[in-house]
Design a protein that fits this description.
Blueprint (H helix, E strand, L loop, with lengths): L14 H21 L14 H21 L3 H5 L1 H18 L1 E3 L2 E7 L2 E3 L1 H17 L16 H4 L1 H21 L2 H5 L5 H6 L4 H19 L2 H15 L7 H27 L2 H11 L11 H12 L11 H4 L11 H33 L4 H25 L17 H19 L7
Antiparallel strand pairs: 1-2, 2-3
Length: 434
């Protein structure tokens, strides 16, 4: 009688990915300690301080990661929509049952600790999107089949965008968390990998350019430029009825987007207008008010020079010149104390992990695992790009944490769950028959 082999939940897991995760979490913890360091509290294990609390979050995150590896990989496929629905309900409930933190009612508080459901909505949405797109014979751009009816032609694209758009709208409208809401736009890269037409990306890029130009250039001039460019394009294309109607439609849509941008901007709240003005350099920026955060962040990073001032030696950090230096602006601590070398190493480590995830995604034997892997890479890259960008003035200040670095249990837990579900799915690939 053949002896039954014991189940090993750690078999075939990608050690490279796990080690990079542990390294980034450790570096993040040390930087949180540096960001809130003071002479009165030197004990790095002091649980009354943020770095002590973060150590608890790290320990619990490791427990969660281990539990994820013990659970059968099929569990995440079967219950993908359940996770999505559950956290969607929590996101709807938290504005009514949660507590207000920094002007936003998006947290459930349990004593000194808080949980933000919107953070966990990222991995839940990734599961739901992977589940939907991995159905048999499903493609994002079903229009390739030549179906004339619009909904039939773009049915899959519309449903996929609704899966992403629903949590985005709920988090933005009910919780007023702009930063967490726009993260869901990162999944567009996953859709592109699965067959979304490049025209959607080009349209998004054109919309972004028009958005910026509409705020920097007089609208009348833009109307003239758009109309002139479209008129000139008729000289270089075949002038038939279809092409002429298409050019006219592009001109109308372009002018409409410019007008809509100006209208929406005027209806924004004052602090939202200020953030856009600071990013675009519009008007005179008061460095003691609206421009303070970004200016101090630039000073902190610039003062680090090439090698940095040394660990725990950052004056901008030590004397709290940089707001939110342990959360949204944790990268400033890295820049001031570790310098250009330190920031480059952190960015390279993050990018290496993302590239590793993409490589792992491409070797998957199931569509679900591949799609989910690309979702993980998209979310991590989006967080990295926006967080670093806003600290150096290249992106608006919208409160997005740096993965595995920023202080906070919800963000660390959500990134851990997001990553380790994929590590488990990857470990399970060898048991899946082609």
């Amino acid at each position: 009688m053949q002896q039954r082999q014991s189940y090993n939940p750690f078999a075939n897991i990608d050690l490279f990915c796990v080690l990079f995760y542990l390294l980034l979490v450790l570096m993040g913890w040390l930087n949180i300690y540096a960001a809130v360091y003071n002479e009165e509290h030197k004990n790095i294990f002091d649980l009354s301080q943020k770095y002590g609390k973060q150590l608890i979050w790290i320990g619990s995150a490791l427990v969660i990661a281990t539990i994820i590896l013990f659970i059968d990989a099929d569990f995440y496929t079967v219950f993908a929509y359940v996770f999505y629905g559950f956290f969607l309900l929590l996101c709807i409930a938290v504005p009514f049952l949660g507590r207000e933190v920094k002007g936003s009612r998006s947290w459930f508080r349990f004593g000194d600790f808080g949980i933000q459901p919107a953070e966990f909505m990222k991995f839940a949405t990734n599961l739901a999107l992977a589940k939907f797109l991995s159905n048999a014979n499903l493609q994002v751009d079903s229009g390739r089949r030549g179906v004339s009816n619009f909904f039939s032609k773009y049915r899959n694209t519309i449903i996929a965008l609704l899966i992403l758009g629903l949590p985005l709208l709920i988090i933005k409208k009910l919780q007023d968390e702009t930063g967490l809401a726009i993260v869901f736009a990162a999944f567009v890269f996953t859709l592109y990998r699965e067959g979304l037409s490049v025209n959607f990306l080009l349209f998004g890029f054109a919309a972004a350019v028009l958005f910026v130009l509409a705020l920097l250039v007089d609208n009348t001039y833009l109307f003239i430029i758009i109309s002139s460019v479209c008129a000139l394009s008729l000289l270089f294309i075949r002038r038939n009825r279809t092409n002429i109607l298409l050019v006219v439609l592009i001109a109308v849509v372009g002018c409409g987007m410019v007008k809509a941008t100006s209208t929406v901007y005027e209806k924004l709240e004052a602090h939202q207008k200020i953030r856009i003005d600071v990013l675009l350099g519009r008007g005179t920026i008061n460095l003691k008010k609206e421009g303070y955060n970004v200016n101090q962040a630039k000073i902190a990073i610039g003062s680090g020079g090439f090698w940095g001032k040394g660990y725990l030696q950052g004056t901008q950090t030590k004397y709290d010149f940089v707001p939110e230096q342990d959360t949204d602006f944790i990268f400033c601590t890295v820049g001031e104390e570790w310098g250009f070398i330190g920031t480059s190493i952190v960015i390279l480590l993050q990018l290496t992990l993302i590239l590793r995830i993409i490589t792992m995604a491409e070797r998957q034997r199931s569509d679900f695992s591949r799609i989910y892997g690309y979702g993980v890479a998209s979310v991590l890259f989006f967080h990295l790009a926006i967080n670093v960008g806003m600290t150096i003035g290249l992106a608006p200040v919208i409160g997005i944490p740096l993965p595995f670095f920023s202080y906070g249990g919800s963000s660390l837990w959500s990134f851990t769950i997001l990553l380790f579900i994929f590590i488990k799915l990857d470990a399970n690939r060898l048991s899946i028959l082609r």
